[in-house]
Amino acid sequence: MLKKQNIIEIIREHVLVFDGAMGTNIQRFDLSPDDFQGKPGFNEILNLSRPDVIEQIHSDFLSVGCDVIETNTFGANRIVLSEYGAEDDAFLINKKAALLSKKVALDFSVQGRPRFVAGSIGPGTKLASLRQISVSEIRQAYAPQIEGLLDGGVDALILETSQDLLLLKSLLVLIFEIFQKRKIFLPVIAQVTMDSSGKLLIGSDLQTVIVSLSHFPLFALGLNCSTGPELMREHVKTISRYWDRNISVMPNAGMPRVSGDEVIYDLEPGVFAEHMGQFVREFGVNIVGGCCGTTADHLAALIEAVENATPAKRKVEKLHAASSLYGIAKYRVTPGPLIIGERCNASGSKKFREYLLKDDIEGMLSVARSQEAEGAHLLDISTAYAGIDEKQTMGKLVSFLNSESSIPLMIDSTNPDVIAAALEKIAGKPIINSVNLEDEAKMRQVLALCQKYGAAVVALTIDEKGMAYTAERKLEIAKRLISVIHNEYKIPVEDIFIDMLTFTLASGTEDSRNAAVETLSAIRALKAEYPEVNTILGVSNISYGLQARIRKMLNSVFLYHALTAGLDAAILHVGKIIPLYQIKDEVKSLIEDLIFNKRTDDFDPLSALLDYFEDNSVKPELEVKEGDVPPEETLRKKIIAGNMQNIEKDLSSCLQKYSAVEIINQILLPAMKEVGDLFGSGQMQLPFVLKSAEVMKKSVNFLEPYLERSDAPARGKIILATVQGDVHDIGKNLVDIILSNNGYHVVNLGVKQPIQAILRALEEEKADAIGMSGLLVSSSFVMRDDLTSMKEHGLNVPVLLGGAALNRKFVEHDLRAIYGENVFYARDAFEGLKIMENLGSAKRAPMMHESTEDETKKKPKKGASKTPLKIRKVKPPEPPFWGHKTVKDIALSELLYYLNKQSLFRSRWQLRKNEDNDRFAESKLQQLIAHAQDNRLIEAAYSYGYFQCYSEKNSLFVFSDNSVKIPDIRFDFPRQGAEKGICLADFFLPSDSKQRDVVGFQIVTIGEKASQESMRLFENNEFQNYLFWHGFSVELAEALAEYVHRLIRIELGIEPKEVLDSNYYFKGKYRGARFSLGYSACPDLSDQKKIFQLLKPEQINIVLSENYQLIPEQSTSAIVLHHPDARYFNV
Predict the structure, then answer these.
(1) Which one of 3.90.226.10, 3.40.50.300, 3.40.190.80, 3.10.196.10 gives the CATH number of domain 883-1121?
(2) Is this prediction's pTM over 0.85?
(3) Nearest-angstrom CA–CA distance, 740 and 1058
(4) How would CATH label the architecture of 713-840?
(5) Which end of the chain is more exposed for a tag (fewer CB within 10 A), N or C?
């Protein structure tokens, strides 16, 4: 008797392999219309009419070694079956399919190798998020399918090709309800399908999918259908990064094409399997299979590729966030707080209340949209009002908000029925506001709903005794709430928001004077004890009952101190908060006296504040009267204040004194710089940055007709985009305008652009460069990932990066370490223009290939990558020694002849070519040389050597010691894909030659002091001097590399000893070539370890980072080829 094992146990032993396509393989049989009951496409009926066909398909997959077969029930729900008049047979078809599959699986099961059946559930033909099907209709349509599969004995359920999050969530809720009713539990796999834009059909990205489904007890989350594996790579990478359980990937056999009446999938089994094996080894995928177009041959190749593969270990980044249908809102934002718009609430907005009473859905949606535009991260939704059916109205409004709002929802109600009506219509992950301990039974009902639907929850510090007023009571109740929510209902602590409650300071009564102090103290105490738990406040409660002018300022100052205490989220009207710097110091001081209860026998802060405002003259500092100050100062203040009133008049006044370019360069950009400084110091919060950006955008749009546009043809083409997850476009649009008005063709993709869309545009437009922008801090990490992806794909197109998320050090140090020297930091639009001008004017290969470890002096011969090369066999030169040598203390003066001034002046320093610039550059260069010599900043040293070697196919085998008979070091190089494409190994004698060849290696550095000097200048904000010194030091390292390469050529006897014209070296006219690791001909940076083994560069204080980068920064290494045919080429 077989020992019974389940899928959960088996996946611990090896990668789980599912079968391939059902539909593709059905088409291989010669079936008659009668087999389909005269209804073409009715594949599910074959479970009843031709079970032999289905059994054969299952057997074919099991015969090659698949672990799991899927039932032939993809479309066997009542809705799809109704198209064939078979909706009433849903239960029967599913049960029969499961029984049939189970029988075949048992026939193939042997001891130690069980086979399993997964019940296949497809997405149907209706999109719930577009209100094409209701939740009740979903339950009626799919319950018979699920029940039939379970009665037939399936071992797991797999929801495939999901395109709509709301439908997928509704099905998962239904499945786990049925499990609970039956008192069973089976593994459940949820798979989504992504379109070419990197999103589900309905518009959800993968982070949204992960956040929205993370609470369900899923066995696995994955991808299937849509594309072949090669186009799934970025999506698989995203799941690997953020999903903490098993990952499944089941692609098509490539992209489909139509030939006559056939749909054909061309991807060969071997290529399919190779990609899938990479997913296992690189991204930790442990469930694999095939979708459309995959046959038993594909699965046989797949099994061979993964049978001994160990899934990569993953370090998962948990996403603590709420989600809408389209995106996520992380709970912790920088700068804080997480803003929950409060105006979709009858008590928070008169306008919303009027729309609510009229049942005007479009009107209510307009209020929601306005809050999103103001910068809210979530929307608080409340439909409770006298005479309104709260449950019905909530359900109706939320069903529209689900598809209309791009930001997540907070459902504001204490009524479990109302909350349930909302939750079943939300595709994403909402927050429920709220629960408390005053009515524990009701609280538990709400928490059960949060657990079921995966919602986060706001908990108020209220218990059986009422609201908590002191910090001690607030903290005591908060602990009780956390215990119940987390320990009993298993809601993660990161999904808990504790509202410490705050009360008005306006009453003046003795028991209210410390309201703010107690709240702030409670927040600090909670964050100290539970740092993962979130804190939230209804900020405006602090000022209830005061004049509107005072409320605005009091709310703003109190919010600042709450954030300092540890507040994470705030329910507020963004438009009713102003930055601290706009509040006069004396007003702010009075407000702080009130907040911190600095009352004495002779001083009452509340009375003092009220007295101060009696004259009705207090206004924010940046409010100015027309004519009070010069127009340029008025314009500056309006940019900073986000004041759009009469902005065209101010701009027109400025145009009387300045040109449009001068206004942008001398007034608008410096004003935005002040906004950035205020943002960076925490004095201005994100919504106000957006207001300033709106005024800036309007100003630039007004000035655009006054900008002189070049009549010359386009000087180049650039793709501009704000990166995925970021909606801010002012910086990008300013770059668009400036570049467009200076003769460049700009393709502006807009905001929230995934890297796939950017690269697709690059290819379609045949652009010369990419520009990426972002304001959010998280955007800097998106850019890092995008550049990593581009590097992995072998791309090296110039990339300009800009936005408040970045700084020069991060781009020019951290990101260049990933992508190479072809990534540039554009502080503003005009620096972006300068970079594009230098890229276009230089027209030299190094600008496309620069790196601290690259050949800035070499460029490929014209057409090198296209023309097949005939490589001669040549007699190897005789080196003067074998092994390596180390040389230190190279004089700076010896390197200056090899310094490429054109590269330094034009590329590194970005100076245009003219007499004045050249005189300035020469003068600056002499200053730097003197500075380096006087302070002994250059410690030039190198290690180089010669080693015996031979080649085999794409590999170079190197003997680290000539006394051994077998080579102990191997370098593998890629080969060009074209016919007769070349490979670095081709330039060395093959293994069957009568003698061994010789290969040179070199590694050079100008020392750590040069890097330290760069860092000192940067940290002292001496950015111009930093630019000059850093460029000089990088080019000096390249000069040392050229110096050593020439020494090697001389020692090998392939170059005369006399010094030639410097252009001879810079243009690479000599024999042979040197290749630095990381470029397409030798892309594997991990080969640096092998060069270290050969040259022992630790002796000259060079070390290797964990990412195989050389330290110090101004160091380079290379493989040196002596062959006369050796040249630079791309793979």
Answers:
(1) 3.10.196.10
(2) no
(3) 50
(4) 3-Layer(aba) Sandwich (3.40)
(5) N
Determine the Cα–Cα distance for residues 638 and 7; give it in Å rounded to an integer: 64
Q: What tokens were used for 603?
A: 């001083």
Domain ranges within the chain, ordered by starting residue:
7-307, 321-613, 631-704, 713-840, 883-1121
Q: What residues contact residue 347 under an 8 Å CB cut-off, 6+ apart? A: 353, 382, 385
Q: Do the strands 466-467 and 462-463 form a parallel or antiparallel pair, or are they unpaired?
A: antiparallel
Helices 206-213 + 165-182 axis angle, to 10:
20
Q: What homologous superfamily does CATH list for 321-613?
A: Dihydropteroate synthase-like (3.20.20.20)
In this prediction, residues 173-188 reach a mean pLDDT of: 97
Please name the residue ranges forming H helices in 812-955: 816-819, 829-842, 845-849, 892-895, 901-902, 915-934
User: For the chain, percent helix, then strand, then coil, each to nearest 5?
Assistant: 45, 15, 40
Supply angle C-alpha 228, 231, 235, rounded to 5: 115
Query: Mind listing the pLDDT tens digit for each residue in 828-839?
Result: 776 887 898 788
Q: Name which residue leads in pLDDT, 27 or 844.
A: 27
Instruction: Assess contact for 518 and 548: CB atoms under 8 A.
Output: no
CATH of domain 631-704: 1.10.1240.10
For 324-355, what is each residue's pLDDT tens digit?
999 999 999 877 899 999 999 987 788 999 99
Residue-level pLDDT at 861: 36
Q: Which of 847, 804, 843, 846 is nearest to 827 (CA)?
A: 804
pLDDT of amino acid 712: 37
Torsion sign over Cα 83, 89, 93, 95: positive
Q: Is the pLDDT of residue 865 over 60?
A: no
CB 955 within 8 A of CB 970: yes
Q: Kindly report the number of other CB atoms within 10 A of residue 669's CB atom.
A: 17
Kindly state the helix (H) or strand (E) to which residue 285 belongs, with its residue range: none
What sign does the dihedral 1018-1024-1025-1029 (CA atoms) show? positive
What is the β-pairing status of strands 156-162 and 769-773?
unpaired
**Sign of CA pseudo-dihedral 1061, 1064, 1066, 1071:** negative
* Nearest in space to 1056 (alpha carbons), one of 1069, 1067, 1075, 1066: 1069
1106/331 Cα distance (integer angstroms): 32
Of 297-311, 482-496, 672-686, 925-939, least confident by mean pLDDT is 672-686
Same fold, 321-613 and 883-1121: no
Amino acid at 864: A
- 1009-1057 pLDDT, tens digit per residue, is 998 998 787 666 555 566 778 889 989 999 999 999 999 999 999 987 7
695 is written with which tokens? 């005024």
Contact 982, 869 (CB under 8 A): yes
**491 vs 333 pLDDT, higher one:** 491
Report d(CA 954, CA 136) in Å as an integer.
61
Q: Which CATH superfamily is domain 7-307 in?
A: Homocysteine-binding-like domain (3.20.20.330)
Pairwise CA distance, residues 295 & 291, whole Å: 9
